[in-house]
């Protein structure tokens, strides 16, 4: 909701100020300038990134108007970890083997569809539970393995934001390209067109610069920041999972192991101690 409000504020402020200054909206409608700027930016993006990144960025961008990293989702992840660790502590690690091998049909995982829907997170949890069930890795070795994977995961999660940032950096330049091409067209008309027509073409050229700068700082730049924030939240949740499982591997009881994970979470959506305690009792 806040992102939609931000877009509305940008449009209202820029266009409202322009209209109040006796500007004409029709003068800003320049589809060919938009074609030059948007097409050049998209083409540069395709050159700079693999095809998988293009689809990933579009999917992530569409999800920016809502966030799955909410208070309820954090609590759901912690409850899942508590249940699986509690079962393994009471019945042994071999008792959760069926749950981690087929999480989709697991009675525990099935209670948490939000987590199960995230295939990467589900695989992450199950992989480390398999390693823990082998019993051949010390807690510090397990933590080292976590750190190596989280380091590569961080690079992957942050790549979409970096890719969009580069597009935002290039948009003012593409706006100048559109403006220069407009001036070239105007210069070719000197001596042939009337003064009013020349003025319209110069105005259209300047709109190219305006659109490039506005798109960079009003929309694409904020989108890259939103993608970066989303990546930080997702990585933070993986770090919380790591804290829970390492604490459990170190011999901590499930209630205390999950508390380790809760403390790692970002404060914005972190459940309180009492909320988590009640949730575990409900489990």
TrEMBL record:
Family the entry assigns = Belongs to the MotA family.
Provide the MotA/TolQ/ExbB proton channel domain boundaries.
Answer: 134-239
Protein name (Swiss-Prot/TrEMBL): Motility protein A
The entry's keywords: Cell inner membrane, Cell membrane, Chemotaxis, Flagellar rotation, Hydrogen ion transport, Ion transport, Membrane, Transmembrane, Transmembrane helix, Transport
Q: What stretches pass through the bilayer?
A: 171-190, 202-220
Report the GO terms under cellular component.
plasma membrane
Where does it localize?
Answer: Cell inner membrane
Provide the species name. Answer: Zestomonas carbonaria
**An annotated GO BP:** proton transmembrane transport
